[in-house]
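Researcher: Re-running this chain for the archive, since the previous output was lost when a drive failed. Same request as before.
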Amino acid sequence: MPSLATPAVPPGSMAALTQPEIHGDGVMLRPWRPADRPSVVTAYADPAIQRWHCRSMTDDEAGDWIAGWPRRWRAETGAGWAVLHGGGIAGQIGLRRVDLVEGLAEVSYWVLPHARGRRVAGRALAALTRWSFATLGLHRVELSHSTANPASCRVATRAGFAAEGTKRGEGRHADGWHDMHLHSRLATDRPLPEEASALLDIMCIIE
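Model: Regenerated structure tokens:
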């Protein structure tokens, strides 16, 4: 059945672009490369990343994971970037789900152990969100995280993502079902000043 609503972003808009490097506050996002496999294997061997992303990865699987991102870009279903900080790979950020018709994407991220505590994830999230609105033309970017993961909640809050509520029993982790906090930013939201985001060191409180 034909939709009566005009697509928020015309299909083909993302595939027509070359996946860019995105520069942020002290971080750079670039597409993954085959030579990055060791960093991906190291990440998915880390207990904290395994806990929240619920998987491990062999070297071959890391190669397939990297090779899958360009296909997802062309299919307009997702996009992944390596996050560079201090001269090397510090983490990952991606649009794990893209719906151009609805103008929507869902973000995921992780940070390698050596780069934690430097606000790498928040700066990468802010940079990717700006690009998603200004260049890709999305209307909404959202993310969710376990209620047992306050660090991810701080990342979202510092990047100006509003807390919208709790999705009960929505995430299945290795230790069972987790309630998930939902956050979002809209293209129409007021920009978050840099100096204000630096002061937002608060925990998520969602009634």
